[in-house]
Amino acid sequence: MGQPAEKRRRATYADLEAVPATKVAELIGGELHVMPRPAPRHANASSGLIEEVRGPFQRGRGGPGGWWILNEPELHFPDPAAPGEVDALVPDVAGWRRNRMPELPTTAHFSLAPDWICEVVSPSTETHDRKTKMPVYAREGVRHAWLVDPIKRTLEVYSLASRGWVPVGTHREAVRVRVEPFEAVELDLAALWG
Length: 194
What we know:
The chain is an alpha+beta fold. 22% of the residues lie in helices and 32% in strands.
C-alpha cells in the first residue's frame, strides 16, 4: 500500500516577507505566488496608465479629482479559509475614492478594498490575474477592474454585479476612450503602448 499524499503546508505572510525584493509576491488562499518584476512593455503600460489617470483624478488637473491612484499597492484581505490569515495581493494600479478613504493609511498595506484595480497582463501572469486574483477582487467588493494587455494593445473593462464580473467593453490600439469609473475624462490609450 502506498503512502498517503502529504498535505501541503499553507504559506503564511512570513513566507511572503522572505521573498527577495527583486520579485513580486502575493499570498492567496494560503498559496504563495512569486513572479518576476514587470518586463519593459508591462512597466511602460502601467506607467502610461498612471500618467493618464492620476493627473485628472487624483490631482484634479483637467478632471474632477477625488481619487487616490497608486502603483502596486499591497492589499490585505481576510483569508476566508484560514481565520487570522490574510490574502495579500498587489495589483499593478489601484484607485480609491477619497470619500471612502480620505487619507492614506500609515500601514505598509491597505485593508480597505480599492474602488478600481488595473492588472497589466503578460503571458506569464494572465491566467493568475484572471483566474486567481479577479475572483478575490470580486469577493472583496472592488467595483471596477481593467485588464491591460500591452502585447495585444487592449484594454478590457469590467464592472462588478451581483453575479460577478460583467464585461463592459474592450478597446484596442491607440484610441481615445471614456471608460468607467473614469468616464469624466477622455483617456488616450496610445500612452500605454509607446
